[in-house]
Specification:
Chain B: It holds the Pfam family Dak2. The complex is a heterodimer of chains A (337) and B (206). Chain A is of the alpha/beta class and 337 residues long. Chain A has helices at residues 14-25, 87-97, 111-128, 157-170, 175-187, 236-249, 271-287, 318-325; strands spanning 30-33, 38-41, 51-58, 75-81, 103-108, 132-137, 189-195, 215-218, 229-232, 258-265, 291-298, 308-316, 328-329, 334-335. Chain A folds into two domains: 12-188, Rossmann fold; 189-325, Hypothetical Protein Tm841, Chain: A,domain 3. With 206 residues, chain B is mostly helical. The chains are: A alpha/beta (337), B mainly alpha (206).
Chain lengths: 337, 206
């Protein structure tokens, strides 16, 4: 395995220098608290609006900092690469974006993220009396949800949730309603991912796992953690079926159900391959009698330079499609505004 | 003994975690996300920086501040877990004489905090698999009349055995649990850093 080859200065400075870059690139939409590593919507707090905060380890860009702005998040807390942010950050962000309507924490289901957000919510409630509700995303069907695991991971649905819930908060829905909506989105979305290559955490300096040229890892998460199954590389058609089948079979689907179909890249896979994969997914859904109401194709929840993809299907009704179509203006997603 | 022993413990632990950072990260690469060594090193370097600029009058004040530093600097699951340990450990020693018995009570409180925050059970392949036997061995040694050095040595040895016993286990908590059966055959990074902490305590506290 070769030496680490990255566009960096010092491994320890990657997160802070990337945040400086975000601040420099998007001064119209964002402001960044560099000390606490929090990306804020420039005009936060918005009076009367529920504050939406997410956060997590870095290395998943554009998630979450790239989803801060009109119609999505009010703040995103950046941890070290693949490491949860700490309670101080979420407490500071919670106080900053609270405009009297309360704050929703959007947390991906990883042991560290859940613990750190929990501590922050307890402290913010005790300290400033801010009303905080939380939603934990856990849409990854690769993980058996049982007493014997930490539960399913939060992956692709998190992106769709932040967009849809962001629209609801933007139109002034109250905290409980926004939290209920977040839960509904999570409950109706499922994801499955795969990797063609590993990825290298800058501080580690070498790939997290080794994958031979003729192998792929199926059931991958977004932290370079190995998946559940290592298989020989297969044609895209077969890989698409390996991803779509467990996603579709995990929820009751009926003929004519509509979905948002999200073909996500892990960071190192070009769009030409993602569109090729999307074509396979669309054909599989057509055969299953599932209607694609909206689509999203691109690198949105990534795992550094890992090559590979994930498929997320979110079952939607007219209300969710309306919120999906609502204006959004963030560095990572923008339409209608 | 006094607050200086605990300062020495934290400094010694920081050195040990720094020396073993690459090893911990390597263990974490196999079944986790390759950040445990770097995270623990960052947290304990922050504690050393704190010790360099602040002097502490009491053990509880020192340990609580060390715990908050870990919560603030480590991230991941290790930050809240180790942070909670030191917070509870310090709180339990507030106003107490430093004896093998009171330190044992503080250990019990600290491990209770880890259990409450992490919700792990014995055999889940987590740091608790090192903490639980260490605490039992400590209590048994004190009950048998051991001094602090004897009790801590027994605790460190039991932690090492618990750490080694995580190798064949299938993880049921934390990121390694996503691997299912594939997590077997690897030593748990959290149980490994816990053992380093306790070995350091046995070197420095008595």
């Amino acid at each position: 395995m070769g030496a680490m080859k990255k566009l960096i200065n010092e491994p320890g400075d990657v997160v802070s220098e990337a945040l400086r870059g975000m601040a420099a690139a998007h001064p119209d939409r964002l402001r960044v608290d560099h000390e606490n590593r929090i990306v804020y919507r420039k005009d936060a707090p918005r009076t009367g609006k529920v504050g939406l905060i997410s956060g997590g380890g870095s290395g998943h860009e554009p998630m979450h900092g790239g989803f801060v702005g009109l119609g999505m998040l009010d703040a995103a807390c950046a941890g070290e690469v693949f490491t949860s942010p700490v309670p101080d950050q979420m407490m500071a962000a919670t106080k900053e974006v609270d405009a009297g309507a309360g704050v929703l924490h959007i947390v991906k289901n990883y042991t560290g993220d859940v613990m750190n957000f929990e501590m922050a919510a307890e402290l913010a409630a005790a300290d400033a009396g801010t009303e905080v509700l939380s939603v934990v995303t856990n849409d990854d069907v690769a993980v058996q949800d049982s007493l014997y695991t930490a539960g399913r991971r939060g992956v692709g649905v998190t992106v769709l949730l932040e967009k849809i819930v962001g629209a609801a908060a933007e139109e002034g829905q109250p905290l409980q309603q926004v939290a209920d909506l977040a839960k509904r989105v999570n409950d109706n979305g499922r994801s499955m991912g795969m990797a063609l290559t590993s990825c290298t955490v800058p501080a580690a300096g070498k790939p997290t796992f080794d994958l031979a040229d003729n192998e792929m890892e199926v059931g991958i998460g977004i932290h370079g953690e190995p998946g559940r199954q290592r298989l020989p590389l297969a044609p895209a058609k077969e890989i698409a079926a390996m991803l779509v089948d467990p996603v579709v079979s995990d929820l009751p689907y009926q003929q004519g159900d509509s979905v948002i179909a999200f073909m996500n890249g892990m960071g190192g896979t070009p769009l030409i391959e993602l569109y090729l994969m999307y074509n396979e997914v669309a054909q599989l859904l057509d055969r299953a009698g599932i209607t694609i109401a909206r689509s999203l194709v691109g690198n949105y929840i990534t795992s550094l330079e890992m090559a590979g993809c994930s498929v997320t299907l979110l079952k939607v009704d007219d209300d969710l499609v309306r919120l999906w179509d609502a204006p959004v203006n963030t560095p990572g997603l923008r339409w209608g505004a | 003994m006094g607050v200086d022993n605990f300062v020495n413990w934290l400094r010694d632990a920081a050195g040990s975690l720094h020396d073993n950072a690459a090893y911990l990260t390597e263990l974490d690469s196999a079944i986790g996300d390759a950040d445990h060594g770097a995270n623990m090193d960052r947290g304990f370097r922050a504690i050393v920086a704190l010790l360099d600029e602040t002097s502490f009058e009491t053990v509880d004040e020192l340990m609580k501040k060390a715990g908050m530093t870990l919560v603030s600097k480590v991230g991941g699951a290790s930050g809240p877990l180790y942070g909670t340990f030191f917070l509870r450990f310090g709180t339990a020693l507030a106003g107490a004489d430093l004896t093998p018995a009171t330190i044992g009570e503080a250990f019990t409180a600290g491990v209770g905090g880890i259990l409450q925050r992490g919700k792990a059970e014995l055999g889940d392949k987590t740091m608790y698999d090192a903490w639980a036997p260490a605490l039992d061995a400590y209590d048994a040694a004190v009950a048998g009349g051991a001094d602090l050095a004897g009790a801590l040595t027994a605790a460190a040895e039991a932690a090492a055995k618990g750490r080694d016993a995580t190798v064949p286990l299938v993880a049921r908590k934390g990121r390694a649990s996503y691997l299912g059966e594939r997590s077997a055959g690897h030593q748990d990074p959290g149980a490994t850093s816990t053992t380093l902490l306790l070995e350091s305590a046995a070197r420095t506290l008595p």
